[in-house]
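User
New here, explain this?
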Amino acid sequence: TTCFLPSSPLFLPFRVCRVQTVISQRDFIANEGETMSVTQEIAEMDGLELALRENPADFKSWEALVNRAEAKDDLSLIRTVYEGCLKEFPLFFGYWNRFAQAEARHAEKASPDVPNYNSALEVYSRGVGSGVPHSVDLWQHYCKFAEEKVDSVDYVRSVFQSATSTVGSDYRAHVVWDMYIAFEEKHNNAEGVAEIYKRVLSLPIEQLERYWTEFQSKLENSKGMNFLLAAEKPDYIRRQHEDHKLLDAEIKSTIKSRREDIYTAAMAEKQKRDEFEQKIHSGTGRSYYTVDPLLEDQLQNWRDYISFEVENGTIETIFKVFERCLIPAANYTEFWCKYADYMEKKGFLDRASEIYNRACSVYVKRRVSMHIRWGEFEEKRGNIDAARSVFHNLYTSVAANSVEAVLNAANFERRQLNIDGAVSVLNAGIESCSGENKSYLALVKAQMLMLWKNDIAQARTAFDSFLEKARTAMKKAKAAGSDDKAEVWEVPKSFWVAYVEVEKSMKDGEREARVQGVFERCYSEDSPIKLGEDDINEMKALNYEFVLNEGSDLTKLKQLRQELTDTVREGRISTAASSRKRSLEEGDEEPSKHAKTGAEGQAYVSTSAAAGGDASTTTYAGANQGFDYAQYYNYYGANGYQFPGNGYSNYPYQQ
């Protein structure tokens, strides 16, 4: 029997085998002992399937699905469910064991006399290979199963050797070492037992002292000499002495002394780590994976343990503590980053790349920041194709609606001087992102075209193209009565301000007309993407400042002045607008001291005396209120809209 991975989509084989098994009987007994009809089961299975389609990381639904599959005891269903669950949660050693046991159970059903346990052994092998290789518990289950079910001594020995090579130095690895010793003693392999003690006495594990006591005890019995010589070459020791006539007792003493030196050194290393290990294995500690978050004390203990090993350990012990940490703390990017950074610092670049790959493929695969770090790492080491693949996967698959993902992918292409590629990424982001993020990416696109291609025409086209798409989308959404952000293209005031600044930066004969055209479009009455009244008032204030200080159209100047005066008189100034101008009451505190009567009957007041402002800045007042247009202009000048130099650095995009 061969284990298989579910085809895509994930639940296709699940659905097929579920239907086949459900219709094979009228009802079944659930885990809770309740009898459920076929219709009820289908509904429940469909509910779990739907929940997992919407959120593959929903462990409770996986748990319920696993229990339901095991209750039915259908091998095809069991395989599909476990494959899906362990693809999402490979660190659950208990589920690997249950999966393997289910395979073994069905092998025994299929052939009671000579069961074929290959499928079960394959599951165990995968579990300790790509699943959770540093789990002492899973290795313990694997060794026990192999010893009980497999006739080949060599095969079982190879499993023990792999187990002790991988997790033998873990603090509580004694459960595996004990099984290994018992196995070799059962097969009268004195040399094998001696070799095990030789290895285990050099490791700083919890039961180290017990193994030293056992080792000395074995030397004292009648077979002690044979046991000792099995792991040593007495001829080598005799060659160290000129007379070549050492007695066995002296050989024994020499070898024991050597072992004691190794044991003493290992014990000293163990004692340095006892504090960290005891916290991990205490009642409040955790050495295994669950979906529940770690406590801060648990996280801090791992941080301290890693720091200790980095400062005092070897490359092997540092590697080991990181791998062990990334079982209970697999969901924390902090530790993946520390691990990759350390390997990069030491020059193990391929190992660092493999760490990023593991993190982003399985454990923190939905964390945008981790993919960005991976892409930047590959780019930094000159692996451009790999970096491009990481960024492409990020913005097309992992987080297609994330503005952060799109920006980083676009800027990767920009750093390669592939501006067309960057623009293509931004175009994809404009389509996939929602809300104001669409307009933000359009601004980035326009700026990139201006700064990196020096093409104002394309930048202008970027603005206009976005506005046209927004207009079309808004009309469509309005006709359908939809307010879905994925369908509604928002065009905030900030977008218009940036567009205005682009046109103002041009020094040609059409500059004034183009600037005015943008202003007119932003508050056009018949536009489906028209701004709200408060934003329109602020844009008109900016328009007025432009015409007053840089324009030549007196008719437009008079029109805007009148519109703004009417707005103030009618009290149509929002809280947001008033926060960006000087207090209206303060602005007209003593109008009689400064007022001059204008032709239209309203007052205009110099702010130089009232507020210490520039004498050229004029506050127009009407209906006992003052209106400080300069406040609007100053607001934009102080808040990051220096387009095209850095037009999107302070744009309020939504993470």
Summary: The two ends are 48 Å apart (CA to CA). DSSP finds 33 helices and six strands in the chain.
